[in-house]
Amino acid sequence: MLKRILIVLALLSVLLISGCSKMPDLPAAASTPSYQIVRKSEVGGKWQTYQLKIELGKGDELPILLKLVDGDKVDGYFDVEKGDGFDFQIKGNTQLYKLEPPAAGKKVSDRFSFTASPSQGNMYILTLRNTSGDKDVRISAFLEVVFPASGAIFIPLDTRK
After folding, report:
1. In a designed cystine with 68, which of 110, 116, 141, 156 is the match (CB 3.0 to 4.6 A)?
2. pLDDT tens-place string over residues 34-87
3. Which among 160, 121, 120, 154 is positioned nearest to 50, based on CA atoms?
4. For the chain, what percent of residues have pLDDT higher than 90?
5. Is residue 39 a contact partner of residue 143, using CB atoms and an 8 Å limit?
6. Residue 63, burial from CB neighbour count under 10 angstroms (0-12, 13-18, 19+)
């Protein structure tokens, strides 16, 4: 519980310092999931690309915050490599994207794209969640996010050792 509070306080501090106008509600995480930044690159001085490998345990969720300005375009892709019970959504001031549950036995992957707008604010939260329920199922997923170099990304620190 203390870990969750510290993570939320750290995120809020960064957001207040960075000057966001309004931030959507952050989801409450059950624990800190693990992730690895596989690749981080700048493309032509105009775009940033982040590729992440994410492990989510039972009840875990990983909120990733993007700070954007009006007109910024974001593209991305996710792929669940192992596990069932995966949820993914993108929120600004309202929900922009929600993964539709696939048919049984179908691979879970999708592309997403959105443009920042004044009506949605300047902070966007991409939330990856393990919704496997009572099962102790670990989910492995890959996420790629491409956004303007002028934007910023905030990923909670993994403080477990």
Report:
1. 116
2. 889 999 999 888 999 999 999 998 889 999 999 999 999 999 999 999 988 889
3. 154
4. 54
5. no
6. buried
User: What share of the chain has pLDDT > 70, as a percent?
Assistant: 75
**Among the listed residues 35, 32, 25, the one whose alpha carbon sits nearest the alpha carbon of residue 7:** 32
- Sign of the Cα torsion 151, 53, 78, 62 reads negative
Q: Output the pTM of the full model.
A: 0.75
Q: Which residues contact 30 (CB under 8 A, 6 or more apart)?
A: 58, 59, 60, 61
Is 130 within 8 Å of 137 (Cβ atoms)? yes
Q: Which CATH superfamily is domain 2-154 in?
A: GOLD domain (2.60.120.680)
Nearest to 97 by CA among 80, 120, 130, 71: 120
- Whole-number Cα distances in Å, 37 to 53, 84, 86, 114, 143: 7, 22, 20, 22, 10
